[in-house]
Amino acid sequence: MPLAPARVFAALNAVRPPAQPSPVLRKAVVLGGSVAGMLAARVLADHAESVVVIDRDDLRVSGHRPGVPQGTQLHALLSGGFLLLTQLFPGFREQAVAQGAIVAPPAARRHYLDGRLKVIVPDDADSLTSSRPLLEGLIRQQVLRLPNVKTVAARATGLVFDGTVTAGVRYDVGGAAGVEDADLVVDAMGRSSRLSDWLEQGGWERPAMRRMTVHLNYATALFRRRAADPEHAVVMALKSPHTSPELAGAAFFAVEDDRWMAMMAGYADHRPGHTAEDFVRRLREQFPPEFGELAGCEMLGDIRTYHHADSRRRDFHALKRFPAGLIPVGDAVASFNPVYGQGITAAALHAVCLSTYLRSAPRLALPARDFLDLQRVVVDAAWSLSTSADLSLPHVDGPYPRGHRLSSWISRQVVAATVTDVTTARRFNDVVSLRAHPSSLARPRVILDALRANRRGH
Predict the structure, then answer these.
(1) How confident is the model over 234-280, as pLDDT tens digits?
(2) pLDDT of 211-228, one tens digit each?
(3) 109, 115, 126, 270: least surrounded by Cβ within 10 Å?
(4) What does the angle CA 294 – CA 268 – CA 392 come to, to the nearest 5 degrees?
(5) How far apart are CA 433 and CA 214, in angstroms?
(6) CA 395, CA 250: separation in Å to the nearest integer?
């Protein structure tokens, strides 16, 4: 029986770690020390006697990691993701603040759409702002403190199969080959995951990959922040494709070490902000007044750019044959247009899916179908949110899902209503932060409320 997506979302967002560890595995191996890998390791630590995380980087070293090329860019931690992290790591909020992260309640956030200031949702959840290295480092610290988690600095080279079961991982350290046996292997190797190749080499099916070409160009700059406790810690100004084909938008957040981190994004051949002069000029000329004030601050260092070619997903759930003892998570399954900020929150939900699966007394000698079914609900939701928005971009040419025209019209009405109507904005925020399933925005009452708000707004 198909899972009811809205109920799945409600259940996943309510999951808490077990009060006491309940090992059902001897050893679990996680491939990749990404946020998705660390969150999977956190969950596995409750259900395995030992957890080994294999990554090329030395995960004990703090700061920017070579394996995270996008780590220099502005990262938004959605409020849904912040809530999940506080559930997975008791005291996470306080420890993040102690290391310089900024908690941004609703009143400290300003959102613009096409130059119009959106209403504040007073009872919305708090968000957290920091640099990606600080956030990722804090998650890593929390996980590596667990007594049954250890890391191996190595390059994973393949899987070991014992019949229909994944029995271990092959790896390479300085030219020397090794094998780590495992009862469960988690692939968290990101967009460039080689799991599909390894499955094919082992005689298994290769999952279909779907792509949505977006060609997003990011530019991020740091500025000195004068106020230790700014009135607005988050300022975002998004632009609709029909009003601005050149600029996707801009944002700036308060981050650690008394800095502002600012981002500008464009699509296709447009690279807004790729030089310091262009960045500052656009802040002053093309965005609300707060951005002009930011332009008056001292810029620290160089502009950092990043190109995101496409969103992609691998449909592991659709494979007719899949080995037992193997689970993919994070960007290894689906990576989205980063302008929507879904990545970390989606990874946290994948970890919660894993927790739910391991607490269901699964038969580990069989493929993890129950996990894949849960994960599919999360992936489908995040994928539909990002790709439906991307399909409105002038340079994106399908594929268009069934009913796209109607769903696109509904989406435009709801988004427009978030500018003036608190009720619609609250519902929308719950969905975009992955606290509620997108289907909740298609209910007749929601659409009717949005239409009424738009009529009043005009």
Answers:
(1) 999 999 877 776 788 999 999 999 999 999 999 888 899 999 999 99
(2) 988 888 999 999 999 988
(3) 115
(4) 90
(5) 21
(6) 20
